[in-house]
Amino acid sequence: MAGAGDPSTVALPIKGACHCGAVTFEMSVQPRHAVACNCSICRSLGTVWGHGGPGTIVISAEPDATIRYSRGERQLAFHTCKICGSTTHWEAIAGDAKGRMAVNLCLAPPGTIEAIGLRHFDGAETWSFLD
Ligand SMILES: [Zn+2]
How far apart, in Å, are the Cα atoms of 19 and each of 68, 80, 90, 106, 131? Predict the structure, then answer.
């Protein structure tokens, strides 16, 4: 029997949606961890990420449904719903990570983050896990 805090499996696909439902996602592979990052962007957005390789995440939205924000050298584009303000996902738009994406697991059903297991990532300084 798994103890409290041990990661377990969740039903796939992992589905999520912004608050108003204009942007939805489906993740076909369970991420290894749910990741809370302390970099300046993630702290301001208040997100918990589930990372996926190319082809494992499908975003459904009208083409102009999100505001796209990109800054700094990591070349990620963060998408936020224009209507309700929920940050739904990011995608790597250039560089080695191009094609990688992550979805905001705060928008998945309650309990998803706990089931996957939350880890804290030091994106602000060491670029490694703190736990
Ligand atoms: Zn929305």
Answer: 17, 11, 17, 11, 30
Q: At 45, phi and psi to the nearest 5? A: -80, -25
| Structural domains in the chain plus CATH codes | 14-121 (2.170.150.70)
d(CA 73, CA 98) in angstroms, rounded, equals 13
Measured between alpha carbons, how far is residue 78 from residues 13, 25, 69, 111, 115 in Å?
22, 14, 5, 24, 25
Q: How far is the CA of 104 from the centre of ligand 1 (A)?
A: 13
Average the pLDDT over 15-28 and give the result. 98
State pLDDT tens for residues 56-74. 999 999 999 999 999 776 6
Give Cα separations from 114 to 14, 36, 73, 111, 119 (angstroms): 13, 12, 31, 5, 10
Compute, in angstroms, the gap from residue 80 CA to the centroid of ligand 1: 8
Residues less than 5 Å from ion ligand 1, measured at CB: 18, 20, 22, 81, 83-84
